[in-house]
Amino acid sequence: MSAVLSQSDLAVAALYREHGGWLRSWLRHKLGCAESAADLAQDTFCRILRRENLEGLREPRAYLTTVAHGLVVDHWRRLEIERAYLEALAWQPEALAPSPEERALVLEALLEIEALLAALPEKVRQAFLLAQLDGLGYREIGERLGVSERMVKKYMARAMLHCLLAGGVA
Amino acid sequence: MSARAGIQATDYRVLQAAAEWFAVLHDPGVSAAERQRWQAWLEAREEHRRAWQQVEAVSRSFASLPRAGQSGEAARLAVEAGSRQRRMQRRQAMKALVLFAAVGGMAWGGRRLGLWPGETADFETARGETREVQLADGTRVWLNTDSAISVRFQAGERRLSLLRGEVLVETGKGEPGVDDEAALRPLRLATPEGLLRPLGTRFLVRRDEDAGAGESLAVFAGAVEITPHDQPGARQVIAAGQEVRYDRNGVATPVPAQTARQAWSRGMLVADDMRLGDFLAELSRYRSGHLGWDPAVAELRLVGAFPLGDTDRILASLEESLPLRVRRTLPWWVSVEPR
Predict the structure, then answer these.
(1) Which of residues 186-245 of B touch A (CB under 8 A)?
(2) Distances in Å between the alpha carbon of B70 and those of A89, A108, B208?
(3) Using one digit for the tens of pLDDT, what is the confidence trace for A26-71?
(4) I want to staple B121 with a disulfide (CB 3.0 to 4.6 A). Which of A38, A71, B112, B148 is the partner?
């Protein structure tokens, strides 16, 4: 193998060797599922690989759990979004239900949308979603949120500006 | 994502104008005059057109989601659930910090216990009633008489709590209308005495009414791990076909499970060579008021399957088949005596 490993790659490899098993069991304890734990442990090291140098890391396990904890939180949110989506779909006639492939694509998009809009105030986000996803008009949105149509229009502009500044949905 | 880094002041104002035009045009009630003004704005400068292309790119990413019927609503509800989760996680993180500061690691011990005082029931049955509930993940739960459970489907786990009485649980997967994603999350059943971790299974857990009497677990398929609250080290896996008593301090030796124990979930009380005293004790769980019996009849043996829908009829049929009589001093005071 001729690939040249950088100093920091070697540091990650050492980290993996020494603490990989420990991290997996820490994650298994958090998630209660060995399979997800293995996946998230993998993701944790992938994320660390993309970061700067690890030399002189004093508390490797504290560092690992900090990174892993963020992934656990994402994982739970992902499951929650999936759960809510499938639950909502369960209420509609089968003919309208998307196929498993469509569902998987939609879920990916929903995760991105959620992350994109997370920083917006609640009503702004709700107004934007009601317009973009439910296809409601401003009057109806205003009635639902208890604000004027003019305010809904402001919310829409604000949410769109937010998306534009974030570079849009990938 | 590259847009953010290099935004100039003018770009920002153009993006702002584009976002405002978007808000004007998105309303179904937009007037022709406004459309014309937007057209004029768009054609005025190249950078307006570029900004507008970005607006369209954002809109497209939403439009690509199925909007027909209620799918759009489903999508929105999912996004909102995600945001709620995010807020909750943030709050929990804050709370955890505060608690850690105050009491060190104690918060986690409490969390693992999972039973908060005053937890409210999501499903419950009155005395004499049994009920079948199917949860979103396909798990089926039958509640026996005078029982209550709460259900918390959280991101990390599905948690049921037995608040009182008896439940039969059948973990499910791959049924129509079932949330398979949820079914992948670990299921836990917390009881006042211990924490049960079912491993793909059908099992029954029963809490006896007298304080200190403990609980019993019977496993009919798969396996269930019991962790007594005060002795987590005494954790034990109970396999299918076994039945065991346990409390917060430990787990007794398993004995063979009686399959007849789950008959109530089909509305039956099954006695397979059962002591009449035990049978009547069972029966009294489904009745309000007093049901007593003379020790002289307690040792009589009984075989049969009795529909639980009408417990008075069960008593009448006992009278027909066994040397006893049922005396009703008052409508709610019934005694079984030798004949």
Answers:
(1) 186, 188, 197
(2) 8, 18, 46
(3) 888 888 888 888 888 888 888 877 665 566 666 778 778 878 888 8
(4) B148
